[in-house]
Sequence to fold (343 residues):
Amino acid sequence: MSKTLQGIITTWNPEAERIFGYSAGEVIGKPMSIIFPPDRMGEEADLLSRIGRGENITDYETVRIRKDGSAIDVSVTLSPVLDRLGRVVGASKIAHDITQRTELENGLKQANNRLTATVAELERSNKELDEFAYIASHDLKEPLRGIHNYVSFLQEDFASRLDDDGRNYLDRMQRLAERMTVLIDSLLALSRLGSAPLPMEAVNLDTLVDGVGEDLKSSLAALEVELRRSGHLPVVTANALRLREVFQNLIVNAAKYNDKHQKWVEVGCDSKGNVPVFYVRDNGIGIPPQHYDKVFRIFKRLHEQNKFGGGTGAGLTIVKKIIERHGGRIWLESSEGGGTTFY
Fold:
C-alpha cells in the first residue's frame, strides 16, 4: 500500500484487503489512521516525518486494527516515494502479518519464565534437601553413639550374666548400630556433594590412578586381584579429590564382585571421539540387564549383606553424583557371569 505525506491512502493491493478486511474502494482516499489503534495514533506523525526526511524504515513492529475491530501484529517497512524532481511526496508501505510469530514468541517467553521459576524452585528444594540430609545425618549419629556405647557397657559388665542368645543379641545390636553409622556417613557424603563448591584443576589421570592403585595395593593383593592399565590416560580438568573417589570406588567394586580363579580389573580410556571415555573393566560376576539402573540407587544392593564383602550400596550413587557434577555421565555394559565395564 502507499500513502501521501499527509497520510492519505493512495494504493491498496489484494493482500492488504485480505489482511485488514477493507476493500481498496473502501480505503483509497481515506487516512491510513483508520487501521491505527487509538493508543498508536502518535506513530503516524512520527513515521511520516521520518519518511519526509528521506529515511527508510525497516521491520518496524507495531499493532494495527482490522475492519472487524480485531488487533493484528504487523512488521512494517516504509520507503519514500519521490516525484520527478526527487522530492518526497509519499510513502510506499509493506506490512507483514506477524501475529502467529508474536503469539509463538509470547508463548515461548511465558514457557521460559515458567521454566526459570521451576528451576529456581528445584534449586531451592534441592538446597533444603541437602541441608535436611546434613542436619538429619548429624543429629542421628548422636543417639547411635549412645546405643553403641551402652551395648559396649553391657558386653563388658554384664556378658557373664547373659546366656548365648543374650550375648548374640548384643553382638547383633552392635553390628546394626555400626552399619547404621556407615549408612548415615554415606548419606552425609552424598548430601555434601550436592551443595559444596567443586574447585577444578588440571588433573593427570595417570598419576591419579597410580596413586589409587598404590593405596589399594594391600587390599587388592588380599583379594588376589590384578590391577591392569591400558595405555596412557589424558590430563583432564576436574576436581582431583572427587575423581580419585570415583576411580577408587569403581576399582574396589570391581575387585569385590569377582568369583573367578584369576581376577583382574582394567582401567583405560578411549580418546577417539570428541570427548575421552574412561572405563573400569573387570572379569567378575557381571550384572543382569534388569539391574543396570538399580545399581546407581542409594543403599540398593543386589546381594545379601554378608556376600561379596558387604558395603552400604551408596558407592555407585556417589560416583554417579560426582561424574554428573563434572558435566559427564556414567553407564555400564555387562553380562551375567562375564564381567562388567563402567564407562
Q: What stands out?
A: The longest helix spans residues 99-158.
